[in-house]
Amino acid sequence: MKFLNKLTKPLLLPYWSQDLFIAIPRIVCGYLLAFNFGADKFGMPWSPADANLGFFEVAFWFPNDVASYGGIFAIAPVFFAWMGAFAEAVGGLLLLFGFQTRVASFLVICTMLVAIFMQQIQNGLWNCLAAMGFLWIAMFYLILGSGRLGIDYLLTKKNI
Amino acid sequence: MKIPATITAALLTLFLTSCVQKTFKKTVVFQLDASDIKGIKNVSINGKDQPLSWKNSTDMKVIKKDSLYELTTTFETGYTFTEVKFMVNDSLEFNNQDNRRVNFAATDTTFYEATFNKR
User: What is the superkingdom listed in this entry's lineage (chain B) (predicted)?
Assistant: First the structure.
């Protein structure tokens, strides 16, 4: 319980306005991951109808993509594909609302590292920019937590 | 009660495997009327789903010279549609416009008839 509280409790900046300012990239990136990048390959209620995805289903083509990375990804492509898609769609949603922000950040960091080094790097640095952007954002929130503008703050307010 | 790691791993694998979108085989018979074009040298099709692709064109078979061309292809897909464009004499139809959307029939085989560069 103590560990969970530590994991959830955000680091607060001296002023509300500073927390408000640094919440902007978290909310924008969370929204983009949950409603755009993630929802295209992971079945969420708002996934595009054309994707034909059931709830919490990973797109049929994604495990094949993941298997092509080779190594451990070729051994368990379904697991890694599901986790990667889950990290984007659900992790993005958690980031958006600032709920278990550090857990979500960790999932996003792992996914973006794979996206950068196993998928995009051979296509040139330019193609890595989107994944790198999400990676930097998630790295900051792994340390900071949700700040004052998130559910984590409301849950741990008494202990701050 | 402790659950052995192997059982946990097996259950997790089973759960995740069942969470992959189901695929099905859909055969589409594409038939193209290109009778408006004079001096046809080659007719092909490009599409978004394998075995078609946007990079490489797939040749269509001549049914009636300078008029009717056909290709039968099978997709293994989770989608309910695919997108294609036809190409005559290396010129792609609907340049800078939307692709043709081909909705798969409920049955295994879909018949799609089109006229080059016309919706």
Answer: Bacteria
